[in-house]
Amino acid sequence: MRTGSDYLESIRDGREVWIEGERVRDVTKHPALAPIIQARADVYDMVRGDEDRLRENPSAPVALAKTDQDGEARNTLLVRPRQKEDWYAKWEAHDEISRRVGGLFSRLGDDNLGEMWSVTDERERLEGLDNAFVDNVERHLRAIETSDVYHVSANTDPKGDRSKNPKDQDPDMLLHVVKETDRGIVVRGAKFETASLYANQAFVKPTITNWGDATLSPYAVGFVVQMNAPGLKHICRTTFTDAGKAADYPLSSRLDEVEALMIFDDVEIPWEDVFFYENTRAALIVRSSIHRYASFSMLLRLLKSAELLLGISHLNVEQTGLHRQQAVMEKLSILASYHESIRSHLIAAIESGSVSGSGLWVPHQSMLFSGRYSAVRDLPGMMHIARELTGGQIALTPDSKSFEQPEIAPYLEKYFGLSEEWPGEDRRRLLALARDFLNSGYAGHKLSFQLFSQAPPFAHLAAIFNSFDFEPSKSFTRQCARIGEEARGSA
Ligand SMILES: Cc1cc2nc3c(=O)[nH]c(=O)nc-3n(C[C@H](O)[C@H](O)[C@H](O)COP(=O)(O)OP(=O)(O)OC[C@H]3O[C@@H](n4cnc5c(N)ncnc54)[C@H](O)[C@@H]3O)c2cc1C
């Protein structure tokens, strides 16, 4: 498996990345991008360290590596979930990575790999269709597992005017095939994507599937693209990274997972990387199963956010001595209940899961999707409770340099130092974390991420509708209303 430096070397591959109007020659060295890229490299090293320990001693208690079915030690997050225990192992690995990183990651690979597990589940339905190449999916999945590449996901096109069909506006508003060659297909369009500029490859597929009755469509295409493919450009959004402000912004200065608009300016995709094309049925099957596993990773990330909301709030009220106030305890209980609700959905989804077509353990779908929906829906309210409990000081506290300045530091210690247990510097650190997590540009960005990263909320609800079994409720209602029984007269 890879080390951090293997990974860094792999993305120095001539890819075309733009930020703040300038072309970036080496993404690993750009000041706005280097911190998150280094953090990703550090995760590779952590996993590799655990793998080495596991290889030396197969019964070693390590969280980040696991012996897979083929006898190879690999990243626990990338191991296919064949039984319930594999999901708990991923959960533990995710906790351990977050602990060692000291922050939250969204794109760790497991989320996006889940999309590939779903496609292999659909082998039977896809195999009968024209231009659907499930063997390519299986080969890529195996390659990711064995070569440890950083694989992400591209769904969302700019889309243009949503009221128009693709053919009635600039056709490039949705990514599409422009021609076939002997070597593969040539695609044009654009996608928004987290981490594209520092990942190795992405699974690209359509986000909308409203082609009417058409069975053939150049928009119904799915493939893997290499991030340095000729014609591919990554245009970054503005970042929150400022390595010089790490003491004041402990999360965003290191862990801003930068998104980019990926422009496909006639990019050739070799046949062996094509999963399906010109087949709306295949696109529909892939879209409808896409979050079968990936939602679990998303819900895990939300659980970690809930943990941070609780930790920030509880430590703060302990510092200020407010934790015994009844009204404060009630607010902490609301946060605890949010946390427990997410945790319960995760456990229930694992325990009530079932075996998929490809032999994987599928988390119970309507429980998982309901967990995702309610966790995303309630997140802004929970952030606001944490903001309220932390008080105005997260918005008012002076910066770290002031706390170090000998002339003014004694004043800051006097007004921020609460006790021997909580000196001024520790209080400042807690408030800086709280500000970064709740009040900063990064905090707002992360809220948008949770709202939209997998799909917008209306699609979350559609996933519940499509997976929930309404029959028992209807049957019970029929029973209570005695529907279907013979009429018994007016008495
Ligand atoms: C921080 C961040 C990171 C992201 N990372 C990725 C990534 O890695 N890969 C990727 O592919 N995408 C990514 N996205 C994009 C994300 O998937 C899209 O933003 C999301 O799918 C919504 O698409 P849109 O932004 O085009 O919104 P629109 O399609 O314009 O929708 C906007 C709103 O209009 C309403 N609406 C639209 N259509 C309907 C409908 N049919 N029914 C009911 N209401 C409707 C809803 O309220 C919806 O929220 C990311 C987004 C964010 C914010």
UniProtKB/TrEMBL annotation:
Bilayer-spanning residue ranges: none
Record field: compositional bias (Basic and acidic residues): 158-170
HpaB/PvcC/4-BUDH C-terminal domain mapped to chain residues: 287-481
UniProt keywords, alphabetically: FAD, Flavoprotein, Oxidoreductase
Annotated Pfam families: HpaB (PF03241), HpaB_N (PF11794)
Domain HpaB/PvcC/4-BUDH N-terminal: 3-275
Region (Disordered): 152-171
Stored Gene3D superfamilies: 4-hydroxybutyryl-coa dehydratase, domain 1 (1.10.3140.10), Butyryl-CoA Dehydrogenase, subunit A, domain 2 (2.40.110.10), Butyryl-CoA Dehydrogenase, subunit A, domain 3 (1.20.140.10)
Superkingdom classification of source: Bacteria
Name under which the protein is recorded: 4-hydroxyphenylacetate 3-hydroxylase
Source organism phylogeny: Bacteria, Bacillati, Actinomycetota, Actinomycetes, Micrococcales
